[in-house]
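Feature request, filed as a ticket because there's no other form

It would be nice if the structure record came with a short human-readable summary line next to the tokens. Right now we just get the raw output. Example of a typical job, pasted below so the devs can see what we mean:
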Amino acid sequence: MLQEINDDNFEKLVHESDKPVLVDFWAPWCAPCRALSVLLEDLFTEYHNKALIFKLNVDNNSKYSSKYGIRSIPTMIFFKNGEKKDMHIGISSKEEIRKKLDVLI
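Raw output as currently delivered:
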């Protein structure tokens, strides 16, 4: 199951990670976000030793949503060594997400 992160632990879990990180900016009322979560759950299992995948609820966590200019959800941001490397707005296929993660590994 994907771990929900928040403004309090974002820095430690994302910026200080030694593995690539995908953060899914979402909200529970967002139907496309819920559909994307199913794909991310599968990828979480597949990439558990190679990359980290987290969810951040934009309704409850405005600090990093604002910092990264999240205007539409779902939005995925891909990080490596604490730096934003890629971003995708909207739903995506598992293959597209996999390609973005593989580039970072």
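Something like this underneath would help us a lot:
Strands lie at 3-5, 21-26, 52-57, 75-80, 83-89.
The two ends are 21 Å apart (CA to CA).
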